[in-house]
């Protein structure tokens, strides 16, 4: 389901929204899951991943500042404050009762979320490594901790439904954020493009999974022997 979603992100506009909609639909086809809850589970997966991304970027940024890898400045201070606000968002009450109830339920169901934390951490670390390798290929001389520290706004911009596969918004984020670290706009743009092309290749590679038949669902009539 996940890799099919990556293919949809490549084929349709809306950045990651296209793939997330497909994942929600696929979950609803399994075991009679309600469509709304299936969609909410995909949204929670996306939001929890972004939360882990912000936490990883903040930890890496504080470490880079302590080691002198990233120079301190007003822009860095604003960025640190923004990451802290983003990390506090899950505990901020919401004015809409139905959404507020969903927020409370998500926080109360700690078990599944906590068990997936290490997976989210690995995903974000490897995603930042892909961005770092793209930066190296573009001739950018930044350390991995510095790129991980800058990854949060770049990836968040790429996830916004503003274009096709995140292209455009992701590169703009790279120009702004990496520019604070002294990276030229041309190099920052190429860095974002290379990361986006890597995602395109993953989506194209996963396309054959659409030919794989869905597993048998409970309650469905068993397939007839000898039938197509």
Task: Give a short overview.
Helices cover 70% and strands 0% of the residues. The chain is mainly α and 228 residues long.
Structure explained in plain terms:
- The model is unreliable at 221-228 (pLDDT under 50).
- This protein has 228 residues and is mainly α.
- The two termini are 24 Å apart.
- It is globular.
- It has one domain.
- The protein contains 10 helices and no strands.
- Helix 2 (17-28) packs across helix 3 and helix 8 (144-159) runs antiparallel to helix 9.
List keywords for this structure.
mainly alpha; 0% strand; 228 residues; disordered C terminus; globular
Number-wise, the strands total: 0
List the secondary-structure elements in sequence, H or E.
HHHHHHHHHH
What characteristic shape results from the CA principal axes? globular
Helix content: 55-70%
Q: Compute the separation of the termini in Å.
A: 24 Å
Report the C-alpha radius of gyration, rounded. 20 Å
Structural category is mainly alpha
Total of helices: 10
Strand content: under 5%
Number of domains: 1
Q: Note poorly predicted spans.
A: 221-228
Report the mean per-residue pLDDT as an integer.
Answer: 87
Architecture blueprint of SSEs:
Blueprint: H1 2-11, H2 17-28, H3 35-67, H4 74-88, H5 97-108, H6 110-115, H7 117-137, H8 144-159, H9 169-180, H10 185-206
């Amino acid at each position: 389901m996940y890799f099919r979603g990556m293919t949809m992100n490549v084929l349709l506009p809306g950045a990651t929204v296209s793939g997330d909609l497909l994942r929600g639909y696929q979950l609803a086809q399994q075991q009679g899951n309600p469509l709304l809850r299936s969609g909410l589970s995909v949204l929670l997966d996306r939001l929890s991943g972004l939360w882990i991304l912000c936490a990883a970027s903040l930890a890496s940024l504080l470490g880079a500042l302590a080691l002198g890898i990233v120079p301190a400045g007003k822009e860095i201070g604003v960025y640190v404050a923004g990451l802290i606000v983003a990390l506090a968002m899950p505990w901020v009450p919401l004015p809409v009762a139905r959404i507020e109830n969903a927020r409370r339920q998500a926080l109360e169901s700690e078990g599944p979320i906590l068990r997936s934390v290490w997976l989210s951490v690995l995903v974000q670390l490897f995603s930042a490594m892909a961005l770092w390798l793209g930066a190296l290929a573009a001739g950018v001389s930044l350390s991995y901790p510095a790129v991980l520290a800058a990854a949060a706004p770049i990836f968040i911009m790429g996830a916004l439904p503003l274009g096709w596969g995140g292209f455009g918004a992701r590169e703009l984020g790279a120009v702004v954020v990496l520019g604070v670290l002294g990276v030229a706009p041309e190099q920052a743009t190429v860095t974002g493009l290379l990361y986006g092309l890597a995602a395109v290749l993953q989506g194209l590679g996963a396309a054959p999974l659409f030919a794989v038949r869905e597993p048998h669902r409970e309650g469905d009539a068993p397939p007839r022997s000898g039938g197509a």
